[in-house]
Amino acid sequence: MRRLKKGEVTALVAAGNSAENWQDILVADSFSVENIRGCRFEGRVEIEQGVYLANSTICNYHICTGARVESVLRLECQGQSSFGNGVKVATVNENGGRTAIIYRELTSQIAYIMTMMRNRPQATDRLKALAKEQAERSRSSMGHIGNNSTILGVKFIREVNVEEGVTIEGASLMENGTVGRNAKVGIDVRARDFITDNDATVDSASSIERCFVGENTVIANGFTAIDTLFFANCHCENGEAAAVFAGPFTVSHHKSSLLIAGI
Question: Are 191 and 109 contacting, i.e. CB atoms less than 8 angstroms apart?
Answer without folding.
Answer: no
